[in-house]
Amino acid sequence: MDKMRTRSCVPSLFILAVLALFTVASSAGAQEAATKQRPAVSFPHEMHFDVADDCLSCHHDYQDGENVLDEDLLMETEPEETMELNSMDREELSAVSCIACHNDDAKTGPMDAYHNQCISCHEAEKAGPVMCGECHVRPKGLE
C-alpha cells in the first residue's frame, strides 16, 4: 500500500517542482528587466542652440506635411522646463509639450519620437551620440 501511495505522489511532486522552477525563473527575469531600465536623458538645450538651424529643427507640429508650429510658443517656455512639461497631466499640457501629440495612444509614442528625432539627426550630421549608454548615462556609483 505504501509503494502505491509513493508512486501516485511522484507525478504530483514533479509537477510542483516544475511549477516552482518556472515561478523562480520568471521572477528573476522580471527583476533583471527592471534593473536594466535606462535612466532618463538630460537634454543639453544650450549646446543644441549652437548647432541647430533653429528651434523648428527639432520642435514640430506637422499638418499636411508642413511644420506649422508657432516658434513664439516655444519662447514662452524655458528649455529646462521641457522634461517637466513632458511629465504633466494631459489637461495641463502646453502646445510645445512632446507628449501632447506623442503619447501612448499615438502611432509614434514619446520614446520612439525622441529616438527617431535625435538619432536620425546625429547620424545625418555625423555628430552626437547614437548608442543607448551615450545619452542614458547612469549616475556614478550605479553602473
Automatic annotation (TrEMBL):
Residues 28-136 form the Class III cytochrome C domain. Its cofactor is heme c. Residues 1-30 form the signal peptide. Keywords: Electron transport, Heme, Iron, Metal-binding, Signal, Transport. InterPro entries: Cyt_c_III, Cyt_c_III_dom, Multihaem_cyt_sf. Heme c 1 binds at residues 45, 48, 55, 58-60, 121-122, 132, 135. It holds the Pfam family Cytochrom_CIII. Gene3D superfamilies: Cytochrome C3. Heme c 3 binds at residue 118. Heme c 4 binds at residue 136. GO terms for molecular function: electron transfer activity; heme binding; metal ion binding. Binds 4 heme c groups covalently per monomer. This is Multihaem cytochrome. The lineage of its organism: Bacteria, Pseudomonadati, Thermodesulfobacteriota, Desulfobacteria, Desulfobacterales.
